[in-house]
Write a structure and sequence with these properties.
signal, single chain, mainly beta, 2 domains, five-stranded mixed β-sheet, Neuraminidase, 2 helices, Sensory_adhesion_molecule, about 350 residues
């Protein structure tokens, strides 16, 4: 190789200086190792899993929220009471707990205010914390710091004077409006509660139309950016549109297709015209659409879950994930991406 390079150099001495330099540079480059885009460091693409199987025995979660900032799901527990988190590798960790958390039901992540809001009830499935004083009477809202898990507030709802006339209570689901006001459904009383950002509680709306007798009544609730709530009644599958400014003028959403939505549980508004509704008793997630500000609704797709007792649903990027709690004694629970 040395001999060839010297010969090349002698021959090149007869060329003009600029051409000699160009040829010399080309020869040196040929001796260097090659480099391509394939050798450059790349950032691996993180793909969200289609399903997570979480080995937490007898947790029986009811509510779920995706926490984008911390890349984790937040879940409740009917049988343990505490609030937990789940990473994409299915690892589980406890986020928050408090002795008054008998059964935690609906969860709402108010990310802008770094709060986790949790509906608290007692239907007797947590033997370590239930009591005669709270059984079927507990309805409360617990609020935690999402970073530290510290309790920020605990608000009694069922004990409000306007709610005390009803013997039974079950705080179920939560929606939060743009101003930080929380709205909580009561499945055993015909009530929607309101808790302002300072923790002051009131009965936001009550109506005989919400009464379900001994059955489960009001359940899922979501806030629409146009200034109203959409609320589901489980025993009939009825949807209500409730204006924030004038709740007494609420209307029933007309089911244009005559579709049965009985067993309605968790609700997720994926865009102003699209609502996902989980029906636990039908083992189905319905995709509903409205083009007239939720005066009427029609079905545009379904997702069958199988016999897994699906409850609530959350948005993660452009995807939605539904919670499979199975039963109160199951060795695990699952979080599954919905596809239509």
């Amino acid at each position: 190789m040395l001999h060839s390079f010297q010969s090349f150099s002698l021959g090149a001495s007869r060329l003009p200086r600029a051409m000699r330099l160009t040829a010399l540079a080309a020869g040196l480059l040929a001796l260097l190792p090659s480099c391509s885009k394939d050798d450059e460091p790349t950032t691996p693409t993180v793909t969200a899993p289609d399903r997570l199987s979480v080995p937490q025995a007898a947790l029986h979660p009811e509510g779920i929220q995706w926490d984008e900032a911390n890349k984790r799901f937040i879940v409740s527990s009917r049988t343990k009471g505490f609030i937990g988190t789940v990473k994409d590798d299915s690892t589980f960790a406890q986020l928050a707990d408090e002795q008054r958390l008998i059964s935690t039901i609906g969860v709402n992540l108010d990310a802008g205010r770094n709060r986790v809001l949790v509906a608290v009830s007692d239907n007797g499935v947590n033997p370590g914390r239930t009591s005669a004083a709270t059984l079927r009477k507990r309805a409360a809202l617990a609020i935690f710091n999402n970073t530290t898990g510290a309790l920020l507030n605990y608000v009694d709802l069922g004990g409000l004077p306007a709610a005390a006339t009803y013997p039974n209570h079950f705080a179920n689901d939560i929606a939060v409006d743009k101003d930080g006001n929380a709205y909580v459904t009561d499945s055993n009383a015909p009530i929607i509660y309101k808790v302002d950002p300072q923790g002051a509680a009131s009965v936001f709306l009550t109506s005989p139309q919400f009464d379900a007798g001994a059955a489960f009544g009001l359940n899922g609730i979501v806030y629409h950016p146009d200034g109203y709530l959409i609320v589901a009644k489980a025993n009939t599958g009825t949807l209500f549109k409730v204006p924030i400014a004038t709740p007494g003028s609420f209307t029933t959403v007309t089911n244009a297709a005559g579709l049965s939505l009985t067993g309605a549980d968790g609700l997720l508004l994926t865009d102003p015209q699209t609502l996902l509704l989980v029906s636990g008793s039908q083992s189905t997630v319905y995709r509903l659409n409205s083009t007239d500000a939720w005066a009427n609704v029609r079905s545009t797709g379904t997702f069958a879950t199988g016999a897994v007792s699906p409850t609530t649903i959350t948005k993660r990027g452009n995807d939605a994930y539904v919670l499979y709690p199975y039963t109160a004694t199951s060795p695990r629970f699952k979080i599954v991406k919905v596809s239509f």
